[in-house]
């Protein structure tokens, strides 16, 4: 991941509804959710939700797949992994023991 991709991903998540959408999709992995169901659960108009989902998809942290008449959205876990690694790859100036608390916090959820 490069700076521009990281900025796009972080920018997409720097808005309340989009952050909620992304966290909701992460909770619904690997099945994903239909766009209409995401809008209903977050009480957001469908056209507004479509715009938010488009921003997240262009940022590389959400992907979509058409199933019949529905579009199923999923968190792009590869994109999340790339962003997370980009943010911490130079962590702790070569002292991995300083990163141990961060890794310990991430381990149970992953």
Description of the molecule:
With 110 residues, the protein is of the alpha+beta class. Helix content is 57%, strand content 13%. The chain contains six helices and three strands. It has helices spanning 3-13, 16-27, 35-42, 46-58, 77-88, 100-106; strands spanning 33-34, 62-67, 70-75. The chain has a three-stranded antiparallel β-sheet. Helix 1 (3-13) runs antiparallel to helix 4. The longest helix is centred in the middle third of the chain and has 13 residues, at 46-58. It starts with a helix and ends with a helix. The model has no long low-confidence stretch (mean pLDDT 91).
Structural class label: alpha+beta
Q: Number of helical runs?
A: 6
* Average pLDDT level: 91
State the distance separating the first and last CA atoms.
Answer: 21 Å
Layout of secondary structure:
Layout: H1 3-13, H2 16-27, E1 33-34, H3 35-42, H4 46-58, E2 62-67, E3 70-75, H5 77-88, H6 100-106
Antiparallel strand pairs: 1-3, 2-3
Which tags fit this structure?
alpha+beta
Summarize the structure.
The protein contains six helices and three strands; from the N terminus they run ααβααββαα. The protein is α+β, with helices and mostly antiparallel strands and 110 residues long. It has a three-stranded antiparallel β-sheet.
């Amino acid at each position: 991941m490069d700076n521009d991709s990281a900025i796009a991903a972080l920018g997409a998540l720097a808005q309340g509804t989009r952050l909620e959408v992304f966290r909701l999709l992460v909770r619904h992995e690997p099945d994903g959710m239909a766009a209409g169901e995401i809008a209903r659960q977050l009480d957001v108009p469908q056209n507004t939700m479509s715009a938010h989902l488009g921003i997240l998809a262009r940022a590389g942290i959400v992907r979509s797949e058409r199933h019949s008449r529905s579009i199923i959205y999923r968190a792009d876990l590869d994109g999340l992994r790339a962003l997370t690694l980009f943010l911490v790859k130079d962590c702790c100036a070569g002292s991995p023991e300083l990163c141990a608390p961060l890794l310990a916090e991430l381990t149970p959820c992953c």
